[in-house]
Amino acid sequence: MTHAALRAIEVLIGLSIAVGTLELFAVRGALADDGIWRWDTLAAELGGLRTLLAYGPFQAVLGVRLVAAALLVAGVHGPVAPVLWITTLLVNVRFRGTFNGGSDLMTMVVLSALVVAHLGAGSAVLVNLAIIYVAVQGVLSYFVAGVVKAVNPAWWRGSALAAFASRPDFGAPPAVRAVLGGSAGRVVSWGVIAFEVAFPLSFTGVWAALAFVVAALVFHLANVVVFGLNRFLLTWAATWPAIVYVAYGL
User: Fold this and answer.
1) Rounded Cα–Cα distance for residues 56 and 60 (Å)
2) Average pLDDT, the chain
């Protein structure tokens, strides 16, 4: 069970990193010296990293990251997890924080656990603690997001979700914006709050964990279709095997 959970985490986070890296390659023109994300604009106070994260070397960093992600998916261990941790950190530094917000932060959380699990592979305790860490962080991410929404009256009115859907950078379909702008948007908002705040109940048993994982899958698929948040699906999916694993152990 432990090996299966760890392997599932590896495959899912590896796929997430591969997708994110390919996305960065796809917009590499914007990272060039004449692009909107050119390094000279972002790197004023980073000293020696200015050379490492300039356009050319940064493409090499992405290449190493992509190969390491493929190796992780293929089941190769060795230094793969530390390499992914370092290259992912460099990507975050390159964008002075994160390029894709919460999914990049959760990627670092999962990779940190994998580094511990791989380096401590001879210790069942360390491997278990690494998986538990991923599970707790995954559950907390939903719960905290739900609490933040629950204390915001705009979420209870549905106006926060409607405003989110109306943002031009997400490009939500007009029909979806119309639905979320009406009374249905309020019901959806309530459902999201309830789902996220209740997520710690996933630890009450394996069937509860599976139910919440299915609900999370639907939630993230909806975000992919409506808002194009594809990377969030794979990144958070990497926490689900850990959640089921912990619930099974309890």
Assistant:
1) 7
2) 87
Q: Tokens representing 86?
A: 């370092």
Give the C-alpha separation, 158 to 138, whole Å: 25
Contacts of 108 (CB under 8 A, 6+ apart): 85, 88, 89, 92
114 residue type, one letter = L
pLDDT per residue as tens digits for the range 100-150 = 668 889 999 999 999 999 887 778 899 999 999 999 999 999 999 999 999
Is residue 190 within 8 A of residue 161, CB to CB? The reply is no
* Number of residues assigned to the chain: 250
Mapped onto helix, strand or coil, the DSSP state of residue 72 is helix
Q: Which amino acid is at 153?
A: P
Q: In a 10 Å sphere around its CB, with 0-12 CB exposed, 13-18 middle and 19+ buried, how is residue 152 labelled?
A: middle
Q: What is the pTM of this model?
A: 0.89
Q: How would DSSP label each residue in 135-164?
A: HHHHHHHHHHHHHHHHT-HHHHHTHHHHHH
Q: 61: Cβ–Cβ under 8 A, 6 or more apart, which residues?
A: 52, 53, 87, 90, 91
216-to-108, 157, 191, 204 alpha-carbon distances in Å? 20, 23, 12, 16
At CA 164, angle to CA 160 and CA 170, rounded to 5? Answer: 175
In this structure, what token pair is assigned to residue 168?
A: 């031009």
d(CA 114, CA 48): 28
How far is residue 89's CA from residue 47's CA, in Å, rounded to a whole number? 16
